[in-house]
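Moderator note: this is an archived Q&A kept for reference. The question asked for a predicted structure of one protein chain; the sequence and the answer are reproduced below.
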Amino acid sequence: MKRRSWVAAAAFGSLALLLMVLGAAIRPLVIPDTPSPAVILNETEIGFVQDMTAHHQQALVMVQRLRQADDPTVLRLAQQIADSQRLEIGMMLGWLRLAGTTSTNPHPMAWMHDTDHRAQSSHHQATSTTAAPTVATMPGMASRAELDALSAASGRDADTLFLKLMQRHHYGGIAMAQAADEQLDGGPVEQIARDMISTQSQEAGLIGLLLTHSARTPE
């Protein structure tokens, strides 16, 4: 009798184990094990990050082309700008990799729907220095001719040209960050946009002071 009970229990256990194995094998066919991936960045965030990465990259080019500056304060500011924007580029490229998208925007500035910001950035371009008329649609960008002129400039002329180009560049970046801040509703991309507004506004203010001082100082 005991032997029969033991055999029945063993048979029941084997059946239960078999059912468990079959269930594990069939489950992926019925319920996928891998859930749908969460959205890392929305379209506005992707567009802003892609465009701001390109915008920052030109700022690094401008710093590299400041080869024959005269004022050590201008050189320190240029290095500060390069350090902060290089760090932000790394962060933004990381987000784009996590989102599984490219670092280049096939439709630059398509995300920036706020025409008031475009008008504001255009105003800054016109008032800060000679506007760059053909550099995509991204506000504040320098033209190839302006970058070449910066490479060729030396001494005080290099300082002044760099400051004017970077001031316009910052105004364009601020306009882009403000547009992103208005369109987004929380998250790390909006936070970095706000940080950019603060940092670049302070740097643009310092650039204005340096330009005023340079204009008043005789050569």
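Archived answer notes: The CA atoms of residues 167 and 204 lie 5 Å apart.
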